[in-house]
Amino acid sequence: MEHKMVSIADQIFDELEKAILTGEYERGDILTEIKLSEKMGVSRTPIREALRRLDQERIIENTATGAKVIGITDKDIADIYDIRLRIEGMASFLAAQRRSDEDLQRLKGILDLQEFYTKKDDPDQIKNYDSEFHLALYQICQCPTLLDTLEPLHRKVIKFRKVSVAHPGRAAKSFAEHKAIYDAIAAGDAINAEKLTCEHISNARKSILGE
Amino acid sequence: MEHKMVSIADQIFDELEKAILTGEYERGDILTEIKLSEKMGVSRTPIREALRRLDQERIIENTATGAKVIGITDKDIADIYDIRLRIEGMASFLAAQRRSDEDLQRLKGILDLQEFYTKKDDPDQIKNYDSEFHLALYQICQCPTLLDTLEPLHRKVIKFRKVSVAHPGRAAKSFAEHKAIYDAIAAGDAINAEKLTCEHISNARKSILGE
DNA sequence: ATATGTACATTTGTATACATATATACAAAT
DNA sequence: ATTTGTATATATGTATACAAATGTACATAT
Question: Which CATH class is domain A74-208?
Answer without folding.
Answer: mainly alpha
